[in-house]
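Letters spell out the chain; backbone shape is given numerically. Both lines appear below:
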Amino acid sequence: MKTEDAARLAGLLHAGRQEARLADLLAELPADPLLPTTPDEAYQVQAEIVRLSGEAIRGWKVTALKEEDRAAYGGTLPVAGPLLSGWVFPSPAEVPLSRFVAPLLECEFAFLLGRDLPPRETPYTLEEIAEAVAGMLPAFEIADGRVPPDAPGALRLADSMGNGAFIPGPPVTDWRALDRAGPVRLIIDGREIETGSGGRILGDPLKAVQHLANAQPLCAPLRAGHIITTGTATTPVRLEQAGRVEAEFGAVGRVELATVGEGSETR
């Protein structure tokens, strides 16, 4: 993919995110637009979005952990989108719904890296990944996209893999003995909406970090301080109105979010 094509698409996706709208690719790109068809091309666009935003990469959302899901993105490995600093709000957080196009709430187990995980030829073992993890934390991801849900996979990957916002809870440093496949309860306005389990993530969400480390290179390296979020442990829930949302992750902790109307401040 030519640099100028990646930059043009990145500009549209970045503007769509800032303005909470779908990027009108048909109107704003040439009649025969060159769109990404592989993960490498999607990562070109991601890198341009990071540059345009001027924001730091705070972490990554990983997907396509199962082999049968990877062809949709044009490749054979798991893929990931960056979590940009301007869209990461530590729990408890307040986030205006007006910042999103069609937000979906997901409850996720995440891991804080204590050291870099550079690309290498020899695959990382699960024990090496565990040694590199400084903490485990509960989190919400608000999934949102600037392209339609039925867009080609590589285009959705280019669009930061559909990340809208990320709300992490405090990390637990003594995490190894915790139940990483433990139950999750999602509560909205005092009513339990969903229950889920980290077991949905390959039986152990730490394996998602291993898969991601072995799928590099991405649009940037995996660095100490990055948070890796491993995929939803609950059925995604549409956020359609203001309310109070919390999730309980057992010994891993809890995460809290208030979705508020237009004009409210984010903290």
Notes: DSSP finds six helices and twelve strands in the chain.
